[in-house]
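PAS domain-containing protein
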Amino acid sequence: MTSTVTFNHLSSRYVDTKPARAAGARRPRNPAPPAASAAAEPSMTVPTTVGRPGKRARSEGEVALGNREGDDMEGESEEGDEGEGESEEAEGAGDGGEGCGDGEESAVAMLARAVQMLTSEVKNLRLENQQLWSQMAVMQDRQIKLDRAMAALSRYSDVDIIVIIYNQHIIHSIIPYVNITLNLITNIIGNQQQLFMDERWRREWEQLHEPAFREFSPATTTVPSVAKLMLEDLRRDLPFLRQYALAHEFAVPGPGYPMVAGTMSSVFDNKPPVIVFVNQAMAQLTQYSWHELLGKPMSTIAVFNEAALPQLTPILTKKAPMSESTLHRFNHLFRTRSGRLLRIIDNTQFFFDHDGNVTLSLTHSSDDS
């Protein structure tokens, strides 16, 4: 037989007294409804079996205990989910760090390739520069030979040149048309004439050009203060000096002295010489940069005395072809960029072309203001 029994003492005994979760904690997925207090609900009516109240009470307590254990397990599972999320975030951060490392390695590799390409380009430019220097040296040697040949021909008139060419080539042109006897006689006469002409040329050449074309050596040079190494350096910096032996005393005692070189078309031309070379010392003296002076007239930095030009005419004309003059000492004014005038005492040397006229002037100056 089943009846309804009221257990007032069980209402307060099995009330859920689990403490509230901390702030920010997640709520359980299936929260249990809040338990009613004893004051609001003084009694609880439960179905039970008559005569077995204790067993029913124990079963209800076991149910409440099971609910509490289920809530605890759900909280632990949520904490596990949070830990897994944190581990995934850490793994993502690690992957990002590895990506940054790969980016740095690729940038270093690109920089290394760029440096290697630049190095190869510089090497190729050096090789091309050496080839250009060798080609220029060959062209300068050819120019020297042509200038010397023209200098030799300039000592003779047009009639003499025709006679020389005839004597050299007429015999060789008639040899195929004569017999053996005539060939022998002609060869003997031609050889004697050629020997006579060669000996005449050799004597005249030595008298005229021996000082200019004597090979440079410490025993034969007349330049006491200029070493051979310095002359070679000047030949490299001043290509037009390669055509001259520089056997006489040289205008420049050293590469550190102020130096300027100019070219002129004719001594009778009213135009001033054009600057073709200036070193750093001269640029500092005149307060110009060297690239500002190249191609400019010499009057940009020097004030010439035009009244002295007639006195210079015998010095600058009718000289030995492809030769250089002795040193000439001048005293004139140099003009700086700021307008200041410097009284300069300089040593100037002139260089002559294959016609014996001046074509270049090289000046070594010192500030004597």
